[in-house]
Amino acid sequence: MKKVILIGKFPPHLGGVASHVQNLAIQLKKKGYHVNVLTYPHNKIKNIKDIKVSSAPTINIKGLRGLIFTITATQKLIKTIKKENIDIIHAHYIIPPGLIALLGSLITKKPYYVTVHGSDALILSSKTLLKPLIKIILKKASKILVISEKLADKILELGIPEDKIIITYNMVNTKIFNPQVKSSFKKEIKTKKPIILFVGNLVPQKGVEHLIKAKKLLKKNSKLVIVGGGPLLKKLKKIVKKENIKDVIFTGPRTDINNIMAAADIIVLPSISEGLPIVLLEAMAMAKPVVATKVGGIPEIVDENVGILVEPKNPKKLADAIEKLLSDEKWRKKLGENGLKKAAKFSTIKTPY
After folding, report:
1. Judging by beta carbons within 10 Å of its beta carbon (0-12, 13-18, 19+), is residue 232 exposed, middle or buried?
2. What are the extents of the domains in the chain?
3. Would you say the CATH fold of 185-343 matches that of 3-167?
4. pLDDT in tens, 39-90
5. Is the preceding peptide bond at 161 cis, omega within 30 degrees of 0?
6. Cβ-contact 35, 28 below 8 angstroms
7. What is the CATH number of domain 185-343?
8. Contact 146, 167 (CB under 8 A)
9. Angle, vertex CA 216, rays to CA 215 and CA 220, nearest 5
10. Spelled out in words, what is the top-level CATH class assigned to the domain 3-167?
11. Which residue, among 275, 268, 274, has the nearest Cα to 323 in the 3D structure?
12. pLDDT digits (tens, 9 = 90+) for 21-43
């Protein structure tokens, strides 16, 4: 029995990386692997289905948080490898998880793999101080897994040999995300209006400000529901208030995404930068039409059969696409049916070990 330790975000942490790591952990467990997870601090961390989940401490001070976690998590990794006799280290995100994997590998001589999820390559690698470190982490890894072809191109630009790169798309858990899910969300927010839904972290690269501005341009009656938390939450709320944009709801972070998504009419992702967003696969698995931007790996999963692609940073184009879908229920249904078929192809995560 092979023993693997996964490093990175994991529930109860939210987001695409956490979902990806959880799906992979469950898949590996079903295949007979012994699975450990090392994640970021959270007061509700617990083992899931015989998957051992632990964290390492840090302090919540910007600039020191990542550094302290790198030190404490490396110590925890080395201890766990020795105690559990781990065979494989698999990091999700280049920094800090990839750096922790590199340090742990140097001391224990165990091989490590890195899955690149998006902003770690697209944004962090553009920072002058981090770029050399990122190259070292990737070059020393046994294999580099990427969640889209676009990310594979980015890794090649960093000078990584093509034979070290494996494309492994995100997967969607269709037991959780499917058209049979019943929703109580419309009752919760007391509306009968069509729902336009965004789900994700409220960070600059998600482009939520452009979606809010698009909502102001809409003629059709609808509710814009923004699910997620992050550093831009206060700023986005201020824009809504200042510009007097009606029917916008911020729910904050939620764990019942399938419940909310089941109530939605259209799922919108207005990103400026992306890897391959799992939220679009979840939307398609629930037979929902999508509107998304032509960035990163999004065009690899979204085409005219499942939704509408628009240019990023363009509220007018976003509004036009949303308006078209709101005006045509039959078309929305057809796109949703096509998306459901497409989502079925994303049921596993490829691994090289």
Report:
1. middle
2. 3-167, 185-343
3. yes
4. 999 999 999 888 999 999 999 888 789 999 999 999 999 999 999 999 999 9
5. no
6. yes
7. 3.40.50.2000
8. yes
9. 65
10. alpha beta
11. 268
12. 999 999 999 999 999 999 999 99
